[in-house]
Amino acid sequence: MDGELRERLAGMIAEATDGAVDPAEVMAGRARLSDLGVTSLAYLRLIDAVEAEFGVQLEPATLDGLDELVDYVRLHG
Amino acid sequence: MAEPDDAPLTWGQQDIWRAVLAAEPQDHYLNIGRVFDAPRKRPVTVERAAQALDRLVARHESLRTRLTGPRDAPLQRIFHEARPAFEVAEDEPAQQVCDRLAAVPFRYGEEWPLRAAFVTAGGHVRQVVLVLSHLAADGHAADLVVRDLRLLLLRDSLPPPPGPTPRELAGQQGSAEGRRLSGETIAAWLAEHARLDPVPPPSHPPGRPRFVEVTLRSPALDAAAQDVAARNRVSSSTVLLAAAMRLAGGLTGQRFHGMRVIVNNRFPAGRRDVVGTISQEALVVLDLRTESFDALVRQAWGTALRAYRLAQYDPCAMAEAVGAAGPGIRSFGCFNDQRLVQEDGAPRESVPGAAEVVRTDAMDRNICDFRVHVGGEPGRMEVSCYADTALLPPSGAERYLLDLERLVVGEART
């Protein structure tokens, strides 16, 4: 279940960046999203997309990395 | 031909209309100009380009929309067909054509909101000039229009445009859900206003012209902003916003200082390609008393991200609400990062050369008393400060920009 969610969120991050960030890259590393090149515009798209799909309102502070994002959505979704 | 349809303005259009009324007859400053090269491999004739222009206008409702109704509450009038006029220029540089076409205000009720010119050489179109009324497009929409016209010069058709039209958006905004969203945003802005320290009244004799814009061209600022951004894992735009606010707060003596930031409002998936005017202002309030500039930058990042999601509201209701916030309790001006290419990657090398500050515009009337614009290209950043001379004389605006450069360049070295 967590694996699916993780994969889906990694895909959403890639979509939000218009493909500038590769989903595999997000899945593989433990890097911060900002280190992967996720811009403020992409963060905003991601916040909207997560809210639309999971009904979860994200705070920018919860968007440090994929692990934090998965935990947050799992907890609040 | 079928009768045109009338619809309310979108909130973004209402914002622009308020700016038009406040600046007339100098409202041409709101016009948006774009110049781009025509295809070189398969050069097009003027006839072919005119056909592409017709298809472009048929594709986007906002490009065949004029205003109608009373000046204090106009409607958008959407026509089913439109043939915008274009000119053919042979011996005039494209940018000059663009500046000439953009220097005249649109006649919003009688004219199509798009002026075009084809710059030709050897029987073919070499460059295309578009000037858009800000009621038809914001900066992002202008880029989408350019993209579509480039494609239509090469192809006969494009898939239907995704996303709502301005008419549909206005309908959503006027619905119960739209009014609820606007009400929530206004309440959030009022809560932020309650944190603001008062802005002191203007203390300088107003000059003539009343509003003056000065522009800093700085080779060093771009690289320095990137450097500070990378260190703090934020965008260079955030660094410049934090610097602009810290220095503006120095002018007003505020600890809690607010600045409005133009937001393009295209974050939801369905709105990314909207051709219309949907950008509006967000309110960013910062506590300027931080232990370091880095701390202020990091505060600005989170605060701005939250604020950017609160930039959709009925502008008349907002103006009324914040206007009653108390004496001097207001945001101080507006910040707009208009860089076409704002890609923060590896920090760039600083380009050699000295900064220069020049006076770039002057106006008698305007809706905004202080504005910071970021533009230019990578390695050639331009920052403009546009101010009411009663608030900040031109010499003060020049000093403000040089202080901004000194602050960011100095922080990059630490």
UniProtKB/TrEMBL annotation, chain A:
Leader sequence segment: none
Pfam families in the record: PP-binding
UniProt superkingdom: Bacteria
InterPro entries linked to this entry: ACP-like_sf (IPR036736), PP-bd_ACP (IPR009081)
Gene3D superfamilies: ACP-like (1.10.1200.10)
Transmembrane segments: none
Carrier domain location: 8-72
SUPFAM superfamilies membership: ACP-like (SSF47336)
Full protein name: Acyl carrier protein
Source lineage: Bacteria, Bacillati, Actinomycetota, Actinomycetes, Streptosporangiales
Automatic annotation (TrEMBL), chain B:
Chain ranges passing through the membrane: none
Annotated ranges, domain Condensation: 6-313
Pfam families, per database record: Condensation
SUPFAM superfamilies per UniProt: CoA-dependent acyltransferases
Biological process terms in GO annotation: amino acid activation for nonribosomal peptide biosynthetic process; enterobactin biosynthetic process; lipid biosynthetic process
Entry GO MF terms: 2,3-dihydroxybenzoate-serine ligase activity; phosphopantetheine binding
Entries under InterPro entries matching the protein: CAT-like_dom_sf, Condensation_dom
Residues covered by region (Disordered): 157-177
GO cellular component, one term: enterobactin synthetase complex
Xref: PANTHER family: FATTY ACID SYNTHASE (PTHR45527:SF1), NONRIBOSOMAL PEPTIDE SYNTHETASE (PTHR45527)
Protein name: Non-ribosomal peptide synthetase condensation domain protein
Organism whose genome encodes this protein: Nonomuraea deserti
